[in-house]
């Protein structure tokens, strides 16, 4: 079957599609990865400056008089880790202390799962209540 596709830009989620991607590599199909390098495959990767992007976003909140700025994002990749570092640096550079009670960087794994998945409605509601209880006026999401 021919789909007339000349190449693909892929945002890899772990190694979930490593078999399919490696088959395409063996067929010399052009692939560019977005924001995450796969160590098993030697493919070009285009990355954002996640640290600066997060830093600038938090600075924008601060310039608009927000001081209680929460962070939600599992540090499961270099991308999110860089964003978290940018978030922290922007707060500190502006004289705002880090508050662990409004920073969420881990979710609990469900029984039988190796990695955290998307939040269900109950978990999301608990996090939102937590942020409200600490008077969070702005929120940086992953």
Task: Write a compact overview of the structure shown.
The protein is of the alpha/beta class. 37% of the residues lie in helices and 13% in strands.
Would you give an account of this structure?
With 142 residues, the chain is α/β, with parallel strands linked by helices. It folds into 2 domains: 8-46, no CATH class; 50-141, 3-Layer(aba) Sandwich (Rossmann fold). It has 4 helices and 6 strands; from the N terminus they run βαββαβαβαβ. It has a 3-stranded parallel beta sheet with strand order 1-2-3, with helices on one face. Strands 5-4-6 form a 3-stranded parallel beta sheet, covered by helices on one side. β1, α1 (18-26) and β2 form a beta-alpha-beta unit. α2 packs parallel to α3. The chain is elongated and about 55 Å long.
Helix/strand class: alpha/beta
- From the 3D coordinates, which CATH architecture of the largest domain would you assign? 3-Layer(aba) Sandwich
Please give the number of β-strands. Answer: 6
Strand order of the largest sheet: 1-2-3
Helix content: 25-40%
Distance between the termini: 38 Å
CATH superfamily of the largest domain, called what? Answer: Response regulator
Query: What top-tier CATH class of the largest domain fits best?
Result: Alpha Beta
Number of helices: 4
Determine the mean pLDDT: 86
Structurally, the number of domains stands at 2
Index terms:
single chain; 142 residues; alpha/beta; Rossmann fold; 2 domains; three-stranded parallel β-sheet; 4 helices; 6 strands; 37% helix
């Amino acid at each position: 079957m021919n789909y007339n596709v000349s190449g693909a830009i892929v945002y890899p989620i772990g190694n979930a599609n490593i078999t399919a991607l490696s088959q395409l590599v063996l067929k010399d199909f052009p692939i560019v990865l977005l924001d995450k390098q796969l160590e098993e495959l030697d493919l070009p990767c285009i990355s954002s400056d996640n640290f600066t992007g997060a830093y600038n976003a938090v600075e924008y909140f601060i310039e608009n008089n927000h001081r209680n700025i929460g962070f939600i994002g599992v540090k499961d990749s270099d991308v999110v880790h860089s964003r978290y570092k940018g978030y922290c640096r922007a707060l500190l550079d502006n004289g705002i202390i880090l508050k662990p009670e409004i920073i969420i960087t881990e979710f609990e794994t469900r029984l039988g799962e190796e990695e955290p998945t998307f939040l269900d409605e109950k978990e999301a509601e608990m996090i939102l209540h937590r942020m409200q209880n600490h008077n969070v006026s702005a929120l940086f999401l992953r």
